[in-house]
Amino acid sequence: MRSTIHAGLAFAISLAGLTSSGRPPAPSQPSVLLVTVLDSLARYPLVNADVIDLATGQHRFTDERGQARLTWPTDGQLRLRVRQVGYQPRQRTLQQNAAGGATTFEMSKVAYVISTVRATGRCTTTNDSAALDLSLAALDQLKQGAEKYDEFRKSYPFEVTLERRSAIVPEKDGVEPRILAHLERFHSEDWELRYKPGNVIQYRYRDFSVPILFLSTLADSVFWEHHCFLATGFQSYQGEAVVRLDFSASPDTRDAEYEGTAYLDSATSYLRRVDFRLANLHDRRGPKRLEGYITFSSPSPFIIVPDTTVAVWWVRDVDKNDWGRPDYVQSLRLKELKYRKQKPPDYEKAKQ
């Protein structure tokens, strides 16, 4: 049986060779598409641009040359969406026989423009408008940076070392607080807790915990379904112009929920800082007030990661909102980020 199969194959190959003699071989279609992403004005490559085929889910980051490679699917069609923080997204459908082996996306920078406020949806006041053009542009960039961070964790998994410092604030002046400090290590895939509306404060016996408003939360569509947002204009942060994007719990929210302000660099759209606080604190078992902030760093071009988080809270009852100093202070600071596999492009490679 085995020799018969080989003989049949040999005959078929020989016959194919005879019937095609004298004809030039048909050109083979490239199996891989090379995508190059450039700044439309300066023409420099955009590192870590987000390239995804909407049909198959293929996802790639561009390298230091602004290039990514995607495999052509069997139907010979790619529905590509390219996004980069600080740029207008672009989308294009390509056919294998027409595009060949390469294509280029030229990206235009986002322009933040203030226009007329219009109220829509559950956010029915001008203070909670979801239709302000500036708000939509800022929100899109905020979510894009957060989603890119999530993809970055998958493409370049890392281990993070954090220093947690906790202190009980003394009631009297002149008394030094006792500070407890220790290191914590997490893998990138389990560093952050998923946002759950209605479960922001997690109660335990004689204690409670509050998940930090992590960067990935800002990419969660569930988070934005339960919040209203409004970009209130421009201001200065550490000498740089930033867009201020306020967010608050939607009016029908009754449980404890996040509210606050995100600050995006108006030139690069990098997220610089998020101020947060808890609203709707009605349960006597939990904190009476909690607020804090998060700052960010950029380990690779167009990628932002949480750097320092500080939170303070009060557990005592106060009269006439005379809060005074908080009861507790806690900080988390990024000490080391170590990649477990390949390293992403760094800033020096991107300049070359």
Main sheet: strand order: 9-8-18-17-16-15-14-13-12
CATH class category name of the largest domain: Mainly Beta
Shape: elongated
DSSP summary: helix tally: 5
Distance between the termini: 61 Å
What would your notes on this structure say?
This protein has 352 residues and is of the alpha+beta class. It has two domains: 76 residues, Immunoglobulin-like (Sandwich), CATH 2.60.40.1120; 209 residues, outer membrane lipoprotein receptor (LolB), chain A, CATH 2.50.20. It has five helices and 18 strands. The strands form four sheets. A nine-stranded antiparallel beta sheet has the order 9-8-18-17-16-15-14-13-12. The protein has a four-stranded antiparallel beta sheet with strand order 3-2-5-6. It is elongated, with a radius of gyration of 27 Å. The N terminus is likely disordered.
Break the fold down into its secondary structure elements and pairings.
Blueprint: H1 2-19, E1 32-39, E2 50-53, E3 59-61, E4 67-71, E5 77-83, E6 90-95, H2 96-99, E7 102-107, H3 133-155, E8 158-168, E9 179-187, E10 202-204, E11 207-209, H4 221-225, E12 227-237, E13 240-249, E14 257-265, E15 271-279, E16 289-300, E17 303-314, E18 328-339, H5 347-351
Parallel strand pairs: 1-7
Antiparallel strand pairs: 1-4, 2-3, 2-5, 5-6, 8-9, 8-18, 10-11, 12-13, 13-14, 14-15, 15-16, 16-17, 17-18
